Amino acid sequence: MTTALKRYGLGALAIAVTIVVFIIPLAFMALTAVKDRREAAKLDFSWPTTFNFLENFQDVLSARKFMLVTAFINSTILTVVSVTILVVLAAMVAWILQRRRSRWNGVANFLILSGLIIPPAVVPTIWVLQSMGLFKTLPGLILIEVAFGLSFCVMLFRAFIASIPKELDEAAVIDGCGPVRLFFRVIFPLLRSVIITVIVVQSVHIFNDFQNPLYFLPGDANATVQLTLFNFQSQFTTSYNLLFMNILLITIPPFIMYLFFNRQIVAGMTAGAVKG
Amino acid sequence: MTVNTAPTVSAARPRQAVAPKRRKGKSAYPYWFYLPAAVVYTALFLIPTFASFFFSFTRWTLTDFTFIGLDNFVQFFQEPALLKGLTNTFIYGAVTSVLKVVLGMLLAVLLTSQIIARGYLRSVIFFPVLLSSIGVGIVFTILMDPSKGMINKALEVIGIEGPAWLVDPAWALVSVALVDVWKGVGLATVIYIAGIVSIPAEYFEAAKMDGASSFKSFFNITLPLARPATATVIILSLIGGLRSFDLIWAMTKGGPGFTSDVIASVIFKQYQAGFYGLSTAGNVVLFLIVTAIILPLSMFLNRKEVEQ
Amino acid sequence: MTTSNRRRWTSLAVGVTALAVALTGCGGGNASGGGGGEKTITWLVDNTENTVTYAEQIAKDFTAANPTIKVEVETRPQGGEGDNIVKTRLSTGDMADLFSYNSGSLFHQISPEQNLVPVTSEPYMANVSDSFKPVVTAGKEIYGVPVGTGNAGAVLYNKKVYEKLGLSVPKTWSEFLANSRKIKEAGTDPIIQTYQTTWTSQLFVLGDFANVAKADPDFAANYTANKAKYATDPAAVKGFEHLEEAAKAGLFNKDYASATYAQGLEKLANGEGAQYPILSFALPELKVTFPDKLNDIGLFPLPGDDASKNALTVWLPGGVYIPKSTKNLDEAKKLQAFIASKAGCDSQTKAVGANGPYLVKGCDLPEDVPAAVKDMLPYFEDQSKNSPALEYLSPVKGPALEQITVEVGSGIRSAKDAAALYDEDVKKQAKQLNLPGWN
Fold this sequence. Notes:
Shape of chain B: globular
Shape of chain A: globular
Number of strands of chain A: 0
Strand order of the largest sheet of chain B: 1-2
Radius of gyration of chain A: 23 Å
Helix content of chain B: 55-70%
Structural class of chain B: mainly alpha
Helix content of chain A: over 70%
Largest sheet of chain B: 2 strands, antiparallel
Oligomer: heterotrimer
Number of helices of chain A: 12
Strand content of chain B: under 5%
CATH class of chain B: Mainly Alpha
Order of helices and strands of chain B: HHHEEHHHHHHHHHHHH
CATH architecture of chain B: Orthogonal Bundle
């Protein structure tokens, strides 16, 4: 009796609460995005009388000389390139770190931990980027994302590599594999599942990043999606439908990621956290 | 988190470490694999971090600097606007961490019990974690509008006059913290779920046999055995909370006035104004605060865990 | 050991590449057209749509009048990034033949005496308004001609509301308060404030500066020299006090804390609010959003204590300057002359409409100019009735004024406190600029 009550009663209550707390704000966003300007300005939670999806979609894309399109291209390049570099570099570090014990390990562990905790020093980073000629450039921001993401990725890879039997390496070495071939031909393919995790988690993270582009990639020509959204906030104060359409559009990539890689995302974000 | 991993693992496998015999001095695990990562990390993280200690004692224009001793730090602790950022950082970190721990724990217990629609609940609670802070910030800025916003309109229906949220000096910071919890509680929940699932089921069964109420088994089994999860949630949300910038910048920009400024937003404002030395000093202050809180805390939390 | 060696080499390699990149960082061609009697000159302007539109119109009309000279408009970003580009191109001798840049304190930061061609004695300078000359003067020489229109930091008000209640334009602060009370009694919001767009909160202070300057003509100089302070100067502190007084009297719209600039303009246009202290840059926006209401809007200066000294705080247009590095000095001067002529103003009006008075003599505004612009004209014409905003007279400006004024208007901080806090805020800027008297 009581268990049935708990099973259905508590469940129903939880569903009701999540609808109010989570679903309604998200639905509000989606509904406002398809309203016309006048209706959106009321800011109420109502079913749109007319659906202006395509119109709003076109308007928001073409605003400020197709800034959002530029932004999507930039964000895609930023995400793809920095995640690729991150995966390769972090896996290399993690592999050596896990396999070869030496006095460097202490240093490396300390540095990894620092990278997780220490807030990056902004202006000095700009100063370094500027001296390399990379400030306000996409390559500069890519390297920034790599530098700031390394610690987390190395951690994930190292935990996973520990589960790969070492005998495999030894067999390959006996077969005459050099370290490069050993790593890229033998080890790397075995990391497939953790690589997917890293890719998914870091893509969402970098795609959503606001602070780093704000500091290291200012200027309209290089806008990323988050920066563009932020700038639209002050520009579209009278067209909430377009503002929300913009939010809706930049929510779609993470949403698709979530649909397909739900498990990896959760695994990646909790890994290193509750290690067994 | 990793603090305790390294020593235990390396202690466990001292023999294996020597195993890959180098042939003529060449290891199968060459150190140069560290190199590309080390170069990027050194140039863009370590050097700026070290440089920040130097430049925080200067008045700096990026091309020129004048050494001014402790002036920047004095300014930080004297100027009311900057000091406000400092205290707010603590409040924000504490409020978000505590709420995430408590709510995350409760939700995780609920979602590991036998209720209906667990899959739906888990997905819907976790999804906001993946949303962009800016998007969430804008949506809630509009929902929290004092007169036209949906939240206050809804409260009005049930006869409560809601606060002015983001534009009320007394509420602004708390309002942003609440949105932060809305967005982040999903992560705390899944971490707790992982922690609770790893508790052997026998404990709960044994407790049930002894006739312990579910309250009792929560306090005597779940809570203590999920301590690693608690440690993780606290540390992750503190690191995030103390450094938090995106959401605050999207929702209040530190306003009204300076009432919801945190160190990260102060750093940005000083940077914008061209006060690079002062901005960097803010970074150093943030660095000191974060390490001074996180390091002892993680050592404390992890030691307890070992004792268990 | 080999590792540490290797490290050293790579760090060296990184250093070398960084240096190489830094050395090649600057560039940019210098296209000077030649031969055939036809010349091309370049003109660098900022990249706002408004500026580019009128600059291209001027270039076109200029070439029509001078068929042998072509003008190529180049653009640069705005803000600090643009400032740096201008400074770099000047110091490397790589500047366009002419360039547009701010007048006032920013103008002084580009070392005019070192970098620019003085034009004091050129005949076309006779066309330039005397109100403008001081803000493009360094030492004894004048260096630029105005482009764009003047603007004001003033109160935009809804004339219909005023008419309905039989009010007249206030000349003093107490008249302003009396008007506001009457408006409130009639059920309209007397003063619009919009703190969601924080910069709009500064107008009570910034827009009051002309009154400060008339009461204390040396304030700007003393302020720059660290001798006058907002908190202690009885005229200067008024701006903060007026804001506090208006807030305490409950004269703001109810949603002042969450309202935005755009909403403020809407309230003003609809007559939901009567008076909005704001920059006249709002007029073109009103024109776009509420074209049929534009002529309901009038303008008066922020009132001070003394009706006879009530003056308008003006935001002067930027200047067009010629760098010493130009190889086409004569042609560049011809363009300058064109800009400082009636034909130049007409080009601009044709391109973007007239949003304020031109600071060129003989430039009449078209008949259909907005009512608020007409209200500005008498103040612009008589130098005793206007003063440039403080930012044109002093490089000392703190970054946090907008937060501080929000605090005063929201009742978080008292006027006295706020003025003192702003004086502190300003110190950082003065020290950063290494101004004499501040260290």
